[in-house]
Every structure is written in C-alpha cells, then in structure tokens.
Write a structure and sequence with these properties.
Layout: H1 2-14, H2 24-27, H3 37-50, E1 55-62, E2 68-74, H4 82-87, E3 92-96, H5 105-119, E4 131-135, H6 140-144, H7 181-193, E5 197-200, E6 202-204, E7 213-217, H8 225-245, E8 250-252, E9 265-266, H9 275-280, E10 285-292, H10 297-317, H11 319-334, E11 338-345, E12 351-364, E13 371-388, E14 391-398, E15 402-406, H12 410-418, E16 424-426, E17 430-444, E18 455-470, E19 474-478, H13 486-493, H14 519-532, H15 534-546, H16 548-551, H17 554-563, E20 578-580
Parallel strand pairs: 3-4, 3-5, 5-10, 6-10, 7-8, 9-13
Antiparallel strand pairs: 1-2, 2-4, 7-10, 11-14, 12-13, 15-19, 15-20, 16-19, 17-18, 17-20
Helix pairs in contact: 3-5, 5-10, 8-10, 8-11, 14-17
C-alpha cells in the first residue's frame, strides 16, 4: 500500500502543470450555474488526461439520447477493475448523478470532488482504501433538454435539465422493467461493479424546513440482518455525525402522512423500481440524498459535496466492517429459502427525531381566496417528532428449486441475463414436480404509469403436479446457481412481488382469451358434457346455491361450464413461468 502511494504521488507530480479544471459552478460568482452535458464530459476528459494513473473515463453503453453513458473510475494505484479492487480489500463506492437532471447538484459536486481527490494531499489517501466509481450523468437525454422553468418550486440553478428522458420516462422508476437504454447500460455497469455502497443524488420537493440535506437509506428491514444491523449501528450514525461536523445537520427524508412534518416522518419504502430498492436486491446498501429545493443552489452543491466526502471518509474508515457485513449477507442469501415479495411501513413509531422545522399555518389564498398552507421562516423550531422506520413483509414465498421460462418470453429473459441471472438452455424435455400459477384476479392502474398499466393485488391459484413434462425451447434458472442475483430472480418472477415482471406487464398476453364459443352452438355441447360428467353438474349446482347472481344468469352458467370443460383455453391466465420443485439434471 505504501508503494502504491508513492507511485500515485509520482504520477500526480509528473502531470504538472495541470490545467485549471475549474467548473462552471465555480466560475459563476453567484454559484447558480450547473454544467451542461458537453461541459461535464469535457471536464472529466481533462481530468483523465491530467491524471491518467489515477482516473479513467470510459463509455459504458448507450442511452436513449444517442450519447453514451459514461463511468469515471478513481483509484489510488491505477486499478480500474472490480476484481482487483476487492482482492486488495477495497470496497467500491458507486455514485450516480443526474437521473433527474433538473436536480443537478450531484453533477457539479462530483466534478469538484473528483478533482479535489486528486489534487488535495489530505484527501488523496482515501483512494488507497476504496475504489470510487462515478456516473457523471445518468439521464443524458434529460440533461440535453435544458430549460429554466420546469422546476418551478426550486431555487436555482438558472438553467437545468428535464426529469424525463428522451422517451419521457422517469428513470427512477425503470430499474426493474428497464425500458430505456439508459437502464440497460446501468444494469450492466452495476453488475460489473456490484458496489458495497450505492449513492444516487437528488433534490426534494415537499415541506419547508431548516435542513439543506435529507437522506433516504435502504430500508434496513429489507436488507439481510448483517447488512441492516451494520447500516443502522455503524454507517448511518457516522454519516450523520460527519455531516454535523461539517455544519450540515441532516435528517431522514421528510415524508409524512399529515399536513406538516410534525405528524411524524415515515421511512420511504422503496420498491425495486427505485435505485435504492434495486440495489438492495443485490446486497448493496443504497442511499438517495435529497437536498432541499428551497435552499440556494450553491448551498445544495456544497452540502452534496460534503456528503459525498463523508461517504468516502466513512467507507474508508469502516471498510473491514462493511466488507464483513456484505460477505455475511451474501452467505445468508445463498441459503435463503423464504423471500419477502411486498412490504409496508408499520404505524408504530420506532424513535423520535429532533426535527428542525418552521411553524406552519393557513391564510387566504391570493389565487382562490381559500385557505392555503404556508411555512413561517421567522418562526423556526426544533422539537421531537415520531419516526416510523420499521417495515414488515406483507407477502412471502418459498423459493422453488428453479424457474422454467419458455424461450418465447425474450424480453424477460434478456432482463434476467442483464441483471446477472444464470440461465441454462433446456435442450431436452424435463420431467418432475412443479407448480403452475393461474392468475385469478388483479387490479390495474386506469392510466399508464411510466409506459405501463401496472398490476397489483395479484391473486393466484397454484396448480401442483407430481409429474410435468416441459418441452423446449425453454430456459432454467436454478436458485442455487444464482449467487447475488437470487433475490432479484425471485422478485422478478413471482407475480405477487411489487415490481415483478408480471406487475409491469411483461406477460399481459396471457390475460386475454384467444378462443371462445358461440352460445347457441355450445348450449348443446355443454348439456352433453354435464350429462356425461355428473360430478361437474353437482359442482355447478353448488356454485349456483352459493351465488344467486350465477343462478339467475343463463350466460354466466354457460360460461361456468365452459371454464370447467376440456374446451376451455388452457393458456388463458396461466402464468407461463413454472416453479420447478425437483432436481434439475445436467443437460447434454
């Protein structure tokens, strides 16, 4: 390690004289300017040229804009790959900026910090204890769509990017469905690095309060016990303490059910569609820093800079504990048999937070004349408020031995592969015990949500068989072979999971019946079928007694007979992915 330090110092000294490397934010005396996409990329190119032994800028796949997604890697000794970093006991800190380019302080703060890590002798040793990966701008498309009006609630900068990408997608809802090229490139990059800590920078909307920085952390109950305990017991306390020492008191993200924060702060329950929920699937601790929209842009950039620096300091100092917790979580995942599919925050507070807010009141609106909420900055307060920070699972499933996915469902298979799932091609028929799901009921959003009509409240009927023959072409995903992708696999393929592929409409075609009957023709067939199957006739009579509406409707009874006859369409509402329960033999 000492030799690496000497080599880095020599490399840095040999690069003199260095270019100015001042950012647009610094060049503006009002600190109210954020870099354009061209300025941001040019800055990192200059940085990489000035310090080639310590930083690399690389294209990491396409985005919907046509411009590439970039990764910036900073390392103490020219180690720019994850395997070597881990072999040297260095955790990986992954920072992503500009998912919402109208919230750009992370873009500018990361530019400043990357430069200072290479120039400042006091900061340089941090890169000997970890590897830093930065996505300078994730939503390149939105950053190119620059304007000065869409963030109407926000205090600066003068111009900024737009929340949606080139396809008008909010990329912070795209981590599982991966409709965008941005998300697909990100997934490949995330799986390559699989960071111990993932940070995605944001700006909040909502209430007014004294804090410049608020923080969303991965919900600790959703993490493996070793990681959840480390997060709550070591990492979060150090982050809050470090920010307090830098004169940025911090609070959990200000989300609440009442009209004002005094009603109690509620942990943001991020499902895998969000960055922190996605990261948790792979035993990465995720964070979403949210600066306050009503603070000046200069303060927001400076607080983000100091928080990112605090992450570096904390991860470097706690590297052995962090790596041990991650290893324990991976070991637990390899043996996990039960998986949670959905969560809710409990209504019992787990603690109180000394919250720094402003007194709120109501006065007549100048627009409508009706009462409107306002916050009085002349009346600050600090008082304890309840904090609801415990989540419980509302749905669980026992993991199968494997999932069998027919080759026809290419979009689902592509997403699985992209996210690290190991798939075996099924070349010969497979026989053994399996469960098949029938989708009995579900609710669907009445309007599109991020390009999909999202399903929820899924009700399933399980059909188990001691013997099933699965004809190819198909693919098998064996749980025991998935390593860190096991939890992702389960939550993607179990229909009741909040952000499953089914929830996002990947399998919607099975929800539409393709064949039916003409009633005047089927009447005779149905009567003949009931006469030959008296047990079915008894079931129909029992159903009519239990349901007066069925008893009063001839068409409904005819449909009932059809659905209980061999004429019914076998694939209708049959979920195409099978849960395999027996051994999976090696394929030739």
């Amino acid at each position: 390690m000492f030799l690496a330090s000497l080599l880095l110092a020599a490399a840095l000294m040999s690069s003199a004289p260095t270019p100015p490397l001042r950012t647009p934010f610094e060049r503006d005396p009002a600190h109210n300017t954020t870099a354009t996409y061209a300025e941001c990329v040019a800055f990192y190119k200059e940085l990489a040229a000035a310090y080639p032994a310590a930083v690399q800028l690389r294209a990491a796949g396409p985005t919907d804009s046509g411009q590439p997604l970039h990764e910036v890697v900073l390392s103490a000794d020219g180690t720019f790959d994850p395997a070597t970093s881990r072999a040297q006991g260095r955790p990986i800190l992954f920072v992503q900026n500009g998912i919402h380019p109208g919230e750009p302080e992370g873009i500018d703060a990361s530019m400043l910090l990357a430069r200072d890590l290479l120039r400042d002798k006091k900061l340089r040793p941090l890169l000997q204890k970890l590897t830093l990966v930065i996505i300078p701008v994730y939503n390149v498309d939105g950053m190119l769509n620059r304007n000065a009006t869409t963030r109407v609630n926000q205090d600066g900068p003068r111009e900024y990017g737009f929340r949606g990408n080139a396809r008008h997608l909010d990329l912070n809802r795209d981590y599982v469905k991966q409709d965008s090229r941005n998300a697909r490139s990100f997934a490949a990059l995330f799986q390559k690095w699989r960071p111990e800590v993932f940070v995605e920078t944001h700006t909040s909307n909502g209430a007014d309060y004294q804090y410049t920085m608020t923080l969303i952390a991965t919900q600790h109950n959703k993490l493996a016990p070793a990681l959840g305990q480390y997060l709550q017991g070591q990492l979060l306390p150090a982050l809050y303490q470090g920010m307090a020492q830098k004169h940025w008191p911090m609070t959990p993200y200000v989300d609440f059910e009442g009209e004002t924060p005094e009603s109690g702060l509620r942990a943001f329950l991020e499902s895998p569609r969000y960055s922190t929920g996605y990261a948790a699937l792979f035993n990465s601790i995720g964070f979403m820093p949210e600066t306050h929209m009503l603070k000046p842009f200069g303060q927001r950039v400076k607080s983000t800079y100091d928080l990112l620096l605090t992450y570096l300091e904390t991860v470097a100092a706690q590297a052995p504990a962090l790596l041990a917790a991650r290893a324990a979580a991976d070991q637990a995942l390899a043996a996990q048999a039960q998986f949670a599919l959905a969560w809710e925050v409990e209504n019992t507070p787990t603690a109180t937070v000394p919250f720094r807010g402003y007194e709120a009141g109501h006065r007549p609106s100048a627009v409508s004349g009706q009462p409107r909420l306002y916050y009085d900055r002349a009346r600050p307060y600090t008082r304890p408020v309840p904090y609801y920070n415990t989540a419980r699972a509302t749905a669980r499933v026992a993991a199968p031995v494997a999932y069998l996915i027919p080759a026809a469902w290419g979009e689902a298979l592509d997403n699985l592969r992209r996210n690290g799932v190991v798939l075996r091609e099924l070349k010969t028929p497979l026989t053994g015990p399996a469960d098949a799901y029938i989708i009995e009921d579900y609710k669907t959003t009445p309007r599109p949500y991020e390009g999909h009509y999202l399903h929820s409240q899924v009700q399933l009927k399980t059909q188990s068989s001691a013997l099933k023959t699965i004809e190819g072409p198909a693919f098998v995903a064996v749980l025991a072979e998935q390593g860190p992708a096991a939890r992702y696999l389960v939550e993607a393929l179990e229909p009741q999971a909040t952000d499953s592929f089914f929830a996002w409409g990947f399998f919607d075609s099975v929800l539409q019946q393709k064949e039916h009957y003409s009633d005047y023709v089927f009447e005779d067939l149905a009567a003949e079928f009931l006469a030959k199957n008296p047990a079915v006739r008894q079931q129909l009579d029992a159903a009519k007694q239990a349901d007066p509406a069925l008893a009063a409707s001839g068409p409904r009874q005819l449909e009932w007979v059809y659905q209980h006859s061999p004429y019914a369409e076998p694939g209708y509402r049959r979920y195409p992915v099978l849960r395999w329960l027996g051994p999976v033999p090696a394929q030739p």
